[in-house]
Each structure stands twice: as C-alpha cells, then as structure tokens.
Amino acid sequence: MHDLDSALEVIRARDDTAAKHAHALWHVMRSTAAHPTKVTRYDVQQMVWSTLPQAHHSPGGQGAFADLHQTCESFAELLDLLGHAEYAAVCRGRTTHAILDAAADEERYRDLVAAAWRASGVWPPDTPLMTWADQGGPIETALHAAAGRLLEEALEAGTLPADGGEALRVGLVMRLLTSPENEGDETWFVRLLDERLDEWTTAGGSQTRRELMVRLRPDIRRAPDSDGAQLPALTYLLGQCRGAGARLTGSGYLPTTLVGELVELMPTCAEMGGAGRSESQWPPVKLLRDLAGDFGLTVRDGARLRLTDQGNALVDDADSLLMTVGERVVSLDQAALGVVQEVVLAALLLEERMAPHRVFEKVAHVLEEEGHPEFEDDLGPNRAADAGAWFLRRLRVLDAVDADWTARRVGLTPAGRAIARWSLRARVLFRHRPGDLVSL
Fold it and tell me: Under 8 Å CB-to-CB from 333, ≥6 apart: which residues?
C-alpha cells in the first residue's frame, strides 16, 4: 500500500497529466470529506457522480478534462494504490460509466445519479424534521455527508440492510440531527435551521418581504405552541370518517346529516345564509372535504369516505393535526403562489386584524419587487388579490381565519396563528413533501 506521494509518483511515471488530475480530484474530495481521515463511499460517489461531471460540463469549466473516463480511471488508480480497492471499483463500474456518458444530457444525468445514489444505500433520506436541499449551505452540506458516513458504517457493521430498512435509515439521520453540535448546547438541527433561516429571510430580492420575515424569525425558530387551539369542523369531519368511514350518497356526496352538522360548525357557512343539506349547496363544506383529501387525511373508498393511516393517527391529536395542516396548506417552492401564501401569513401574524385589500397590496408589492413574470403586467395587483383571496378562503374554511365584515377586517384565530407559524416553518425546512420521490 502506498501513501499519497508515492502513489502519485507511480501514476506520474506513466502519465504526468493523469497524476495531476488524480491529485486534484483527491484534494477536492478531502476538502469536503464526510470523515476527517477516512475515505468513504459517500465521498467517492459524490466526486465521480457529481463533482467531476458537473465541473467538466459547467459553463466555466467546459471541457476541463480531455476525457472524463480517463480522468475517472486516474482517480480509480490512485484509490487502488492507497488501498481503497472497493471504492476504485465504484469509479470503474458500469453505473459510473453510464453517468459520465450522460453528463451532457441534464435530464438523463439527473435520473441516473438519483437511481445510483438510492441503490448505493448511503444517500441520507429525508426526515419528519426537514428535507434535504439540492444545494445546501456549508452546515447542511457537512451534515449530509456525515449522515452518509453513518449509513455506510451501519451497512458495513450489518446493522442496516443493503435493501430496505427505510425506518432505520431515517432513525440514524434523526439521531445525527438531534445530537449536540461539537461546541455549544444547540443540536445540529438547530444549527441547520439557523442556516436555513439566514437564507430564507433574504431570499427573493424583495425588501418588503425581508422586513416581514426578519420580524418573524424568532417565532419561526421556535416550534409553534398551539395553546390548546383546535380545528372543530375538520376534526368533526375526520371523526365521522373513522372505522368503515362515512357512507356517501349515490352521487358521491357527503351524507346530508353530516353536511348539516358541518354547516352548524362552520362560521363561513353561517355567513352564506343558505339553505339545504346537500354538499353541492354548501361550497365551504365541499372545500373542507377536498382539503382533508389534499392533506392526505381522508380517501374515498368506493361508496365511503374513510380516514387514511395518517388521518387515524391525527384525529385525536389536536396539536399534531395543526402541525400537519400548517405544513400541507402551503406550497413549498419559491414560485409566485408560495410567495403569495408566505406574505399573507406573515402580514396576518404581525397585525391582529387587517383589511384584506391591505394584505393583497403587500402581496402585489412583494411580487413586483421580486419580478415574478406572471404578475408584471397591468393585471398584477388584481391577480395578487385573486391569489390572496383564494388562500384566505381555504384558511377561513379551516377555521384559521375569522372576519369582522362590518369593519372589513380579517385576522387569524388561535388555531390560525399556530397554522401560520407551522406553514412558514415548513417553507424554511422542507424543499418538498417528505416521502416524495425527487431527483437528486
């Protein structure tokens, strides 16, 4: 077995350029290594599946290497000489060759890389606390690598199966996130949260949005407290879907008795002043049912509406139900809809009551500052108002917003304040829904 210098000399005797490339790849890999001294599968795969092909095909590094396969083989030779035959085999494997061949085809490349990482067993899974970003900050990048190392060690020790064992994988990552950092009393999760908050408060380029989010940062950093708040109508609907579920009518509607009971519970129905007990006559009831399905709490099963496994777990847990609703009522991407929802919630959290048109003005102003193209024409303010009103209706149906129409003001209920905080926290911590299959 060689040390680094003697291994490079062996390669240099054959090809000076190959030695330079191998040394460069080694240096880059070690500078971001998952372990301070040990080479890991995560490090090697990150190098030959991501760093090397992306550097070669990036605008600034177009054609950095005469031949990607030759460069990868030089790196494999160095690993072999250093006693890492198993990792050298990764570089020479069919999977790596296919990834390098596809590096110029972005869609195929991403698909191959995603499949390869999942098959390797050392790609850290998402957790209920957070989902990984495609390009995280320094703390998140280091944690992702450390989690990959933990998974590899568990595979080598035989405590983690090569296939399956998803709950064990999530548990290992959770244990890392909730462990204390090296210096100080905070956990690594809190360190990552602070890094995400730094990014979140400055994202988008809108000074108006930044002022809102900076004021809310302390609230979002703390896990929200529900203070005993509940969602009466949604909870009642879920309760009626226990067991075999609520029997639907021949047309697929909720039974009229249940519709009447929900109408009595929902303030937004009282404002309508309508009559009848058919779900088709009460749009808020239909929207409530749709939201329960969108949140993954209910599912239609033939002629019945029944609870999902998650619905069963949450029907008697008011705090967790608020958290779940908060996390699922908002979009998680940075497109215009997500920004609209974020600004609506922030504005209502910062003032006890507001005129809806003032909320929509803030939304339009933020969208204009950020330059969302779909809101740049003369219809911008109207479209902002339409999107904001659509979101407020959903919150109103959930009993998250109450209204004083005499004074033309709306405000968050206690449950709404908890939902708003969970929603904004989700915007910080989740890049996609946990469990969604995403490209890497």
Answer: none
